[in-house]
Request: fold
Amino acid sequence: MNERPLHAVLLSGVADAARLIEPLAAALAGGGPAIAPLDAGLPAARLRQLLDALRPEVVVGPDGDATARSDGERTAADTAVIIGTSGSTGDPKGVELSAAALLHSARASLARLRALPGQRWLCCLPVTHVAGLQVLVRSQVCGTAPATVPALGAQALAAAGASHVSVVPAQLARLLADPAAAAALAQFSSVLVGGAAAAPGLVERARAAGVPAVTTYGMSETCGGCVYDGVPLDGVSVRAGADGLLRIRGPVLMNRYHGQPDLAGEFVTSDLGYLEAGGRVVVRGRADDAINTGGFKVIPGEVAAVLADCPGVREVVVVGRPDPVWGERVTAIVVPADHAHPPSLELLRTHVRTRLPRYASPGELVLTDAIPVLPTGKPDLASLKNVTRMGTFSRAER
Reply:
């Protein structure tokens, strides 16, 4: 039964995160309405689409003014927060999270990190997404107000007075490139790295620089990261099904997608993976990102992992692009370490063939200055797949 008021809160970037602290606390305590934090900077059509899907009773704008919607509806009594999906295509979904799930996730995270009461978190991720939201939840459990910075750098890190921070791989890579920022980051007690797969070697470079980096795996449906450095948080279990997809159980799971039936005890992810002999979770990549080339399935993340240590490669993302003969062509989009002497396609192909089947070697190389990313820090795959010219192209026959 829909018994709880639902308020959408429109927020303007990370700097606006403080506006969510009070309504989030009330939602978690049960004395206030459920909240749906939404990015006020979304394209107008996308924002309308989310509001029409969630149908909040009240919309609180960036200026704090509240507007009642004539078509507003209440949400389930056990829902504290609804996270709108951030996908660039398809109909939006609202992930309904209970206070119990959010708090269990926060407490399990703090326990794994050995965080102490009173320690402060630095918020540098949008709180309209689950990773940023959980920084606020952990802060409330710690009994502190988070520090907030819209842009990370050496000065911001040093002045934050925080012990813990959550970043996406792109942020970590930029910070490591600045010795002063890397030194400031090394003063933190923990640095969570999630939201997207970290490039091979990135976390190792961070740890070598003294940064206490911890990789996280999870999604909105699991209240964010629920597997740290390959080990599930307390109360969470992960298994791989016969189809290779990872399945998650535990008290961090969502209640349901908004307007849909309750989740039946286990969440089936879209990620391919397996468990090592010791129980460590290994994520291969998303099943729906798999490249079908000539009847063979190629996991982009596995190819990118090999290419990441190829000489001359600074950053790399692998995608499938249409090919009239093979269906899809394995395409490596590379930021060279030295733009004057970039790696060749043949070098990349040879490097991949030493570790993966021949069909997994890239048939196309795109050299570019930067990898486009979404607000969440994930590579903008739609842009990467559809762009007709980003930089210098090279092609080879299989």
Notes: The two ends are 57 Å apart (CA to CA). The mean pLDDT is 90. The first helix runs from residue 18 to 29. The chain has eleven helices and 26 strands.
